[in-house]
Amino acid sequence: MRRLRLGMLTPSSNTALEPATYKLLAETPEATAHFARFPVTEIGLGDKALGQFDAAPILAAAELLAHAKVDVIAWNGTSASWLGFERDTALCEVITARTGIPATTAILALNELYRRLGVKNFGLVTPYTGDVQRKIITNYAAAGWACPAEAHADLSDNFSFATLPPERIAAMIEQVAAQQPDAIAVVCTNMDAAITAATLEQKLGIPVLDSIAVTLWGALERLGADKAPWRRFGRLFSL
Q1: Residues 75, 88 contacting (CB under 8 angstroms)
Q2: Whole-number Cα distances in Å, 37 to 8, 26, 230
Q3: What whole-number percentage of the chain has pLDDT above 90?
Q4: Distance separating alpha carbons of residues 50 and 59, to the nearest angstrom
Q5: Cβ pair 91, 103 in contact under 8 A
Q6: pLDDT class for 2, splitting at 50, 70, 90?
Q7: Count of C-beta atoms within a 10 Å radius of residue 156
Q8: What's the confidence (pLDDT) of residue 41?
Q9: 203 membership: H or E segment, kind and range
Q10: At residue 6, does pLDDT exceed 90?
Q11: Cα–Cα distance between 176 and 153 in angstroms, integer?
Q12: Phi/psi class of residue 84: alpha, beta or left (left: φ > 0; alpha: ψ in -120 to 50)?
């Protein structure tokens, strides 16, 4: 494998995605992850929470990543799931125009995986509040993906998402699996199911798409890189 430097844009209060990404990359020293943060502390639908995702601070962080001569810049966050997918499409275009570096996001990668897997309906697992959850489901329904089963922890403080124990996350995944969706999405990069996804897939017989792993998949896909070294982490890395 050629040397890959993967740039990741990171919510400032996120403590899950960096350790999880390092675990995903532990046996592939040719691929390294490099992170830049911008302020995100609360997830909600109020003006203050939504304003955290204005383009200016995100682009400033992307420009700092460009100093490290990364090969790709990935927005390792899921805000477009409630703000609208077009936000991430536009963000990637501006990042590339500003830095000359190809860009992707967790949500654009997730949507591409839905297409490749032939997903028609999905189970949704998040730490978010009910109103954010409903907004995500509405956005996906408008794009043609139904959500017959969901579970959420009803939290809004971004830091708190990482405190959810693995057993709670696994139980939420198993809860939505009872409806036999085509795939289960863990939508939040501060709630880590990246390492346990493959085990849960084998147990449930359903693809489990964790946002942290999905972002890595999206970065590799954007670069046309071989994903074989990561196949043990889930079905997505065979696509």
Answers
A1: yes
A2: 9, 22, 25
A3: 99
A4: 16
A5: yes
A6: confident
A7: 18
A8: 98
A9: helix 197-204
A10: yes
A11: 13
A12: left
Q: Is the pLDDT of residue 141 over 80?
A: yes
State how far the Cα of 35 lies from the Cα of 65, in Å rounded to an integer.
Answer: 7
Q: What are the CA-CA distances from residue 154 to residues 48, 67, 78, 110, 151 (Å)?
A: 18, 38, 16, 22, 9
d(CA 33, CA 22): 7
Please answer whether residues 5 and 67 qualify as being in contact, where contact means their C-beta atoms are separated by less than 8 angstroms. no
3-state secondary structure of 222: helix
Give percent of the chain above pLDDT 70: 100
Is 135 strand, coil or helix?
helix
Rounded Cα distance between 144 and 165, Å, is 32
3-class DSSP state of 76: coil
Three-class DSSP category at 55 = helix
How many degrees, rounded to 5, is the angle at CA 58 between CA 125 and CA 239? Answer: 45
d(CA 172, CA 184): 10
- Give residue 65's region: left, alpha or beta (phi > 0; psi -120 to 50): alpha
Question: In terms of C-beta distances under 8 Å and separation of at least 24 residues, what long-range contacts does 84-90 make, across chains too?
Answer: 84/139, 85/111, 85/139, 85/143, 87/53
* Model pLDDT for residues 19-68, shown as the tens digit of each residue: 999 999 999 999 999 999 999 999 999 999 999 999 999 999 999 999 99
Q: Assign 2 to helix, strand or coil.
A: coil
Q: What does DSSP assign to residue 192?
A: -
